[in-house]
Write a structure and sequence with these properties.
This protein is α+β, with helices and mostly antiparallel strands. The protein folds into four domains: about 110 residues, no CATH class; about 100 residues, Beta-Lactamase (2-Layer Sandwich), CATH 3.30.450; about 70 residues, Helix Hairpins, CATH 1.10.287; about 170 residues, Histidine kinase-like ATPase, C-terminal domain (Heat Shock Protein 90, 2-Layer Sandwich), CATH 3.30.565. A five-stranded antiparallel sheet has the order 2-1-5-4-3.
């Protein structure tokens, strides 16, 4: 038996390193990764053992040396390969760990970013929801404000301050002024003004305003031509890319009329109180003067002295007539109502009425046959008739026609509401019509106002028609006027029928 050489020992040592190294690799990386390597290694060792049993071809080299070389090279090469595998697997494990770490960091970043995106998305959804809610509220608010503008009971409109054309208007404006929407679009705000105030409107539009405030009281004209007084409140704004103005118009015609009526009532109350107190006392004084002057004139033997006394008596009589007018004005004239035929009274006054009217005026009578009797004082009715005839005469200085007309009328509730003093029932209407100059609305508004006259104050007291008004009210009647400038006038005096008066009594 030979002693093994150092060469053989070296080969054995190298061969002995392979199994432990294989076990280490299998533990480090798992059998699944290095199993094939171990299988290939031991298969190769088995092949080498088989080749030992053969007589291998020496390739021109000593067979023993060939076997030894194979036995050396194969384990060395296998060990080198396993070392390379170890390095490869270590690097791969490192890469896998690094990849796992990077993947973990990426997953963390992805989760963080996802969380941020989720939060941003949630905030965005909330913002979208709030924006949608805001848009819905804004739309609702716009609809409400539009509704408030369109359905506001007061006329409102917006117009261009440069061209005065309408930019917007509400239904109340159309209703108040009587125009259609198409007509309003073709108009300008200036056309609503009374012609006498159009220039003032243009000047006012040129003045800027930043606060809603009353601008002025203006006269506006409706489509049918009627004039109404409106108080204008305005505010400048930018609308439809124009310098515009919002206007709120308040119709104060009824308010102004009420103020005038209140003022008239106050004036009448003061006049009534003053005239009543003066007339009572003055009437007694004048009656005493008239009576004494008449007695002295009758007893006076000197004709020259009697003339002034008769003049004093005549003047006192005129003064007594004036006091009777004042008493009639305050409805304190002594009255003895009775059943009276108005046609017969007019016939009895035929001569005096002709003298009152004058020679250049034709008097016509149109009396209703079978006229029902009225409940009135004949003296007071005569005063009413005389004052109306005198008023008609003064309206026809160049002559004309005076018409006296009587007719029964039945006043219903609807017609009674058309006049302040009227009431339902059966009445007789006395109409005194003339073909004179007529009256303007301004004069007609003050027609029955005491001491108001269009004549020379030295020739008229302004108590004629005021007296008629007072006498008619004292007899439970009233008077109406139908007149226009240049077309004459008609005065309608309504007396209650005797049967109606007795039924009311």
């Amino acid at each position: 038996m030979r002693n093994p050489s150092s060469y053989t020992v070296l080969i054995g040592l190298v061969a002995c390193l392979i199994p432990p190294y294989a076990i280490r690799l299998s533990r480090a990386f798992g059998m699944q990764r290095v199993g094939w390597t171990l299988f290939a290694t031991f298969t190769l060792l088995a092949v080498l053992q088989v080749m030992r049993a053969w007589h291998p071809v020496g390739f021109g080299i000593d067979p023993e040396l060939t076997i030894n070389l194979l036995n050396l090279l194969i384990p060395v090469l296998l060990l080198i390969g396993m070392v390379h595998i170890d390095i490869f697997f270590r690097e791969r494990v490192r890469v896998e760990h690094e990849e796992k770490r990077l993947r973990g960091e990426l997953e963390v970043k992805v989760r963080e970013r996802t969380a941020e995106l989720d939060k941003a998305n949630e905030e965005l959804q909330q913002e979208i929801s709030l924006r949608k809610q805001g848009e819905a509220e804004l739309k609702k608010s716009k609809e409400q404000y539009r509704f408030l503008f369109d359905e506001n009971p007061q006329p409102m409109w917006i117009y261009d301050r440069l061209t005065f054309r309408f930019l917007a208007y509400n239904a109340s404006a159309l209703r108040y002024y009587g125009f259609t929407s198409a007509e309003f679009r073709e108009m300008t705000a200036k056309e609503l003004c009374h012609p006498s105030e159009a220039d003032g409107f243009a000047a006012d539009s040129a003045k800027p305003t930043n606060n809603v405030q009353p601008r002025a009281v203006r006269r506006h004209v409706r489509k049918d031509g009627t004039v109404m007084e409106v108080e204008i409140a305005a505010l400048d704004l930018h609308y439809a890319e124009c310098s515009a103005r919002l206007v709120l118009a308040s119709d104060i015609s009824a308010q102004r009329l009420l103020q005038k009526q209140s003022l008239h009532s106050q004036k009448m109350a003061v006049t009534t109180q003053l005239a009543g107190g003066v007339a009572d006392n003055f009437s007694r004084l004048v009656s005493a003067i008239e009576g004494d002057a008449s007695v002295l004139a009758q007893r006076c033997q000197d004709p020259a002295s009697a003339v002034p006394l008769r003049r004093i008596a005549a003047t006192a009589a005129c003064a007594a007539g004036l006091t009777r007018q004042l008493l009639a004005l305050v409805r304190r004239h002594p009255m003895r109502a009775q059943s009276l035929d108005l046609n017969q009274l007019i016939e009895n006054q035929n001569g005096s009425l002709g003298r009152l009217a004058g020679g250049n005026i034709t008097v016509e009578k149109l009396c209703w046959a079978g006229l029902p009797p009225i409940a009135a004082d004949p003296a007071l009715v005569e005063q009413v008739l005389h004052h109306l005839v005198l008023n008609a005469r003064d309206a026809m200085p160049a002559g004309g026609t005076l018409t006296l007309c009587t007719a029964p009328v039945l006043i219903d509730e609807a017609r009674a509401r058309g006049h302040e003093d009227a009431r339902p029932g059966a009445f007789v209407c006395l109409t005194v019509a003339d073909t004179g100059c007529g009256m303007t609305p301004e004069v007609q508004a003050r027609l029955f106002e005491p001491f108001f006259t269009t004549k020379d104050p030295a020739k008229a007291t302004g108590l004629g028609l005021a007296t008629v008004h007072g006498l008619m009210k004292q007899q439970s009647g009233w008077i109406e006027v139908n007149t226009h400038a240049g077309t004459g006038s008609k005065f309608h005096a309504f007396f209650p029928c005797a049967a109606t008066a007795l039924a009311r009594g």
